[in-house]
Automatic annotation (TrEMBL), chain A:
Subcellular localization, as worded in the UniProt entry: Cell membrane
Name of protein: Prokaryotic molybdopterin-containing oxidoreductase family, membrane subunit
Matches recorded under PANTHER family: PROTEIN NRFD
Main location: membrane
GO CC annotations, alphabetized: plasma membrane
TrEMBL record, chain B:
Protein name in UniProt: Phenylacetyl-CoA:acceptor oxidoreductase PadC subunit
Originating species: Thermus arciformis
Record flagged with keyword Cell membrane: no
Stored InterPro entries: 4Fe4S_Fe-S-bd, 4Fe4S_Fe_S_CS, ET_IronSulfur_Cluster-Binding
Keywords: 4Fe-4S, Iron, Iron-sulfur, Metal-binding
Database matches in CDD domains: PsrB
One Pfam family here: Fer4_11
Highest taxon listed in the record's lineage: Bacteria
PANTHER family on file: PROTEIN NRFC (PTHR43177), PROTEIN NRFC HOMOLOG (PTHR43177:SF3)
């Protein structure tokens, strides 16, 4: 099992590195998007990853801010996952830029009327906050590792300045206080930046399907669901000690995931039924072709079947009746297929022509109203995934993320 | 009667001494058009007076209209342009497109691509084509679509780095050296007037080596010199959002936009809408004027006569 996991990782890493090098060698030339569908898989993947990050972070906030003690064991892990998915998101959207070398212009000459500028600034604040929170959550364990060699020892010496005496109860209490403050800042921040991603789309007047006040809310719910599901899946499958506490917590998380699936479905019902109900209007056609057009299966198979029906079935029939692995599987499916929802948020509005007849005006493969991600685009996304996994894995190995211990020590 | 348009009178001429009149016409048109195109940097200096054209003698049963005096609209607009540039205040540039005169030849699309050395996939002024009716009761309608240079442009506030803005004269400018290529402005333009430069070339995947000379020429858009080049760090405008500039670089040198000078149907007009004497001013104050997607409140600077 473990061997297969590593083989899979190796293959993904190889594909990802291929995409990475192609991106630098050939720029955007191998990508499938064009000028009429200017955003494609990378943008969808980016909002998917950033949603995972926001969701994982808000889960950790349940512990640090709202005092849900039950979830305490996974809180630092949630922070690590939030950090890794933030990195994945930023790398993916960085690849999407036409001039990657100019990304820092967003800091030098921001235009704060642009939702995109806001987003980047909020991410930066959020990233720094994540690092700070992680530091205060973990440093109490570090004195034990000061004498170690290797990177763990180095980091321990660096971060607690070589201190060997364990942290006192009082100091730990103070750190918790700091985390609580940080988390309290972080919650509105996470809501702002992820709601902001929704607003980035929702504010665009030219795109009928995006231009809806429900978008920020939809994005936030999606973040909670996908991020929560991801943490649940990671917890169920990878938590080193599968004891009674693990069981109980898994059941708790499973119930949260189920509730969020249903709530997300409710919002989605609003998103689709309101513009479609009477069968007229500019959005009707576009939504209709999302549901029944060429890519109907993205919605019905990947989203509704694998992302909603099967997970709910798994949870109700087995998971919540005590078969913990079923909770893990259901959550895993939800987390993975969420990319389908993200794709269906970004693409359908773009493939809908804004001027009838424009498609006949000029023949070029970049000037078409159709889009299918190319292998190259997928491989770049695979790069981000492999990167995120690597970062998470390395962090849990070199830092006492799991119950205050390194992965080796608990396994 | 003096008309602003050259063409209606042509009908008067043809049918009499056909060969002669056609030659006279062609000479006249050719000199104007080619002066604008070929001479490049040299503006056509139109005289203060409308140039009078000798009409060929009419047969006795010819039209009973009095002696007609006509002038090619290009000359009129050229004079308007000079006046606008010299008047000392900022002009208000607008474009007018007469859809009834557009024959769908796509010459403007091509001349624009030549003027700005556009690579594949980048287009500033496509001619939107739509079929009306079903065969055999069928016709086509044509709608050239440059950038509307909106007065309330949705593409401007979205730019995260402020690389695109509304100029005082109304043109929506892009700074190719600041644009990070995020394409947010592409999705925000309701007219889909912006395209992304993917770094592709016309000679790509064709036999032979290297590029054609025309692919290596610099573009002068926005009055700057840019040489395209793809690569890990591409040379702008590769990797940028690009769009129609109303040929700002030509206007600044006293030349009409290239699409205007090449329009064989004389269907495209350009000028200063703050000057009541100008041709465009008169055209946009007609009742048959419309703008695209008026309901969005973008206030386009491109008017259509229908
Ligand atoms: S037509 Fe499009 S690109 Fe041109 S100014 Fe208006 S919104 Fe901007
Ligand atoms: S593509 Fe360039 S001009 Fe357009 S919004 Fe992005 S940075 Fe601004």
């Amino acid at each position: 099992m473990r061997v297969w996991g590593w083989i899979l990782y190796g293959v993904l890493a190889a594909i990802g590195l291929g995409g990475f090098f192609l991106r630098f060698a050939t720029g955007h030339q191998l990508a499938g998007y064009g000028s009429y569908v200017p955003w494609g898989l990378w943008v969808a993947a980016y909002i998917y990853f950033i949603g995972l990050s926001a969701g994982a972070f808000l889960l950790s906030a349940l512990v640090y801010v709202f005092g849900v003690r039950k979830l305490e064991p996974i809180a630092p892990l949630a922070l690590v996952v939030a950090l890794a998915s933030l990195l994945m998101a930023l790398v993916t959207i960085w690849f999407d830029l036409g001039h990657m070398e100019r990304f820092y212009y967003v800091y030098l000459r921001p235009n704060f009327r642009s939702m995109m500028a806001w987003m980047v600034w909020l991410y930066t604040a959020y990233g720094l906050l994540l690092l700070a929170e992680l530091y205060y959550a973990l440093r109490r364990h570090l004195p034990r590792y000061v004498d170690r060699g290797g990177i763990t020892g180095f980091l321990a010496r660096l971060l607690v300045k070589g201190r060997k005496t364990p942290f006192t109860q009082e100091e730990i209490h103070r750190d918790e206080g700091i985390i609580k403050v940080l988390g309290t800042i972080g919650v509105p921040l996470a809501i702002a930046f992820h709601g902001g991603v929704g607003a980035l789309f929702g504010t665009v007047v030219a795109q009928d399907l995006w231009h809806s006040p429900i978008y920020p809310i939809l994005f936030l719910t999606g973040a909670l669901l996908s991020g929560g599901a991801l943490i649940t899946a990671v917890y169920v499958f990878f938590w080193p000690r599968k004891d009674e506490e693990w069981r109980e917590l898994s059941l708790f998380l499973g119930r949260i995931v189920l509730g969020l699936i249903l709530f997300d479905l409710l919002l989605e019902w609003a998103e689709y039924s309101i513009p479609m109900w009477y069968g007229v209007g500019p959005e009707f056609k576009a939504l209709w072709s999302t549901l029944f057009g060429r890519f109907w299966y993205v919605y019905w198979v990947f989203h509704i079947l694998i992302g909603v029906v099967v997970p709910i079935g798994l949870l109700l029939a087995w998971g919540l009746r005590g078969r913990v692995k079923a909770i893990g599987l259901a959550s895993f499916l939800v987390a993975i297929t969420f990319l389908a929802i993200r794709l269906n948020l970004v693409i359908p509005s773009l493939v809908h022509p804004k001027l009838e007849g424009l498609m006949n005006a000029y023949r070029d493969h970049r000037l078409v109203f159709a889009y299918l991600p190319t292998w190259f685009e997928w491989s770049v996304v695979v790069f981000s995934v492999a990167l995120g996994f690597t970062v998470t894995y390395v962090l849990v190995r070199i830092l006492p993320v799991i119950e205050g211990k390194l992965l080796k020590e608990v396994a | 009667m003096k008309t602003a348009f050259g063409f209606p009178n042509l009908a008067v001429e043809v049918g009499m001494s056909e060969v002669e009149s056609r030659r006279a016409f062609l000479e006249k048109v050719a000199s104007t058009v080619f002066a604008g195109m070929v001479l490049g940097g040299q503006p056509v200096k139109a005289g203060a007076e409308p140039a009078k054209v000798e009409l060929p003698p009419r047969p006795p049963d010819g039209p009973i209209l009095p002696e007609l005096e006509y002038e090619d609209v290009l000359l009129r607009m050229q004079r308007d342009l000079e006046r606008a540039l010299n008047k000392g205040t900022t002009p208000k540039w607008v474009m007018v497109i007469d859809t009834r005169k557009c024959v769908g030849c796509h010459a403007c699309t091509i001349s624009c691509a030549v003027e700005n050395k556009l690579p594949p996939g980048v287009v500033y002024r496509p001619v939107v084509e739509e079929q009306v009716g079903v065969y055999p009761q069928v016709t086509w309608k044509f709608l050239p679509r440059p950038c509307m240079q909106c007065d309330n442009p949705p593409c401007v506030p979205v730019c995260p780095v402020g690389a695109t803005w509304k100029r005082e004269d109304g043109i929506v400018e892009i700074d190719y050296d600041a644009c990070i290529g995020c394409r947010y402005c592409l999705v925000s333009c309701p007219y889909q007037a912006r395209t992304f430069d993917f770094g592709e070339n016309w000679t790509q995947n064709t036999p032979g080596q290297g590029q054609m000379p025309y692919e290596e020429l610099p573009t002068f858009e926005w009055g700057e010199v840019h040489v395209r080049k793809e690569g890990v760090i591409p040379n702008s405008p590769v990797g940028n959002a690009r769009k129609c500039s109303f040929c700002l670089h030509r206007i600044e040198h006293g030349l009409l936009p290239q699409c205007v000078t090449t329009c064989i149907g004389r269907a495209t007009f350009f000028g200063d809408a703050s000057d009541p004497e100008s041709l465009v001013f008169q055209l946009i104050h007609q009742p048959n004027v419309m703008r695209l997607k008026e309901e969005l409140g973008t206030e386009p600077r491109v008017y259509y006569l229908v």
